[in-house]
Design brief:
alpha/beta, 2 domains, 4-stranded mixed sheet, 4 strands, globular, binds zinc ion
Length: 250
């Protein structure tokens, strides 16, 4: 099994586990003879039947075709899961995700429902399906223009690294340099810690507020009783305390 297959298998198995966790599947009907199609559990039917179309365009990078197919399957699998997790139903007319592969600088970029992916990056990082998941979160976020780009990027990496690719979670933080407003994995780690520590779905709530254009930093205080700076200090302190005894200065 190639490394890329391992990564893909991880995505698939995590998705199934999450689907089971996010939706409590009712028992399937017993009448499942070979001629009877399996009944889709009522809870997930709206997600399956909304007919999301994933369109792939590799005309600008024909050698990305096989990889593009895997990315397409990943998007089909994860779109309903992420949408349900973020409580982000499709807006009317939002029935398609496009994956466009072409030669360009950087990794990928998303504009509305179009994810443009750099063919050079795919060739040099064939295991990096996770970056497509990050971009897919941006499609699902569908925010109006926001000042809180740090939070938008943090939510995208939270979905990527705390739902699909836990091996990519940061192992340590440089307290002098890191801040929750850095976005990406740093903010993702902060959000994951808040959810666990305060038992509150802050990612979903922040996402909904950002989507409605009503987000304010005070949301964190409303949900936890502490403002962002106080929460960050508490998060950093908790990491200090969690360090193994042997590494502490004597
Ligand atoms: Zn991003």
């Amino acid at each position: 099994m190639r490394a890329s297959d391992v990564s893909h298998a991880l995505f698939a198995s995590t998705a199934v586990a999450l689907a089971t966790a996010v939706f409590s599947f009712p028992a399937l009907a017993e009448s499942t003879s070979p001629t009877t199609p399996l009944k889709v559990p009522a809870l997930i039917e709206p997600l399956v039947s909304r007919n999301l179309k994933v369109v792939v365009d590799t005309s600008g990078a024909p050698d990305c075709q096989a990889w593009a197919q895997r990315a397409k399957e990943m998007v089909e699998l994860w779109h309903p899961i992420v949408s349900a997790y973020l409580d982000a139903p499709l807006n009317p007319g939002e029935k398609e995700v496009q994956l466009v592969f072409k030669e360009m600088k950087g990794v990928a970029a998303t504009s509305k429902n179009v994810i443009t992916i750099a063919s050079g990056w795919v060739k040099s990082h064939p295991d990096d399906l996770g970056m497509v998941l990050h971009e897919l979160v941006h499609v699902i976020q569908d925010y109006p223009p926001t000042q809180s780009v740090w939070l938008m990027e943090g939510i995208a990496d939270y979905i990527r690294f705390w739902m699909a690719e836990p091996e990519g979670q940061p192992k340590q933080f440089n307290r002098a340099k890191e801040n929750y407003r850095n976005g990406y994995r740093t903010t993702g780690a902060f959000l994951a810690w808040i959810e666990k520590q305060y038992k509150t779905p802050i990612v979903r709530d922040a996402n909904l507020a950002l989507r409605r254009g009503t987000y304010k930093d005070s949301l964190f205080e409303e949900k936890t009783g502490k403002n962002l700076d106080a929460l960050w200090t508490e998060f950093m302190d908790s990491l200090e305390k969690a360090k193994p005894e042997a590494k502490r200065p004597i």
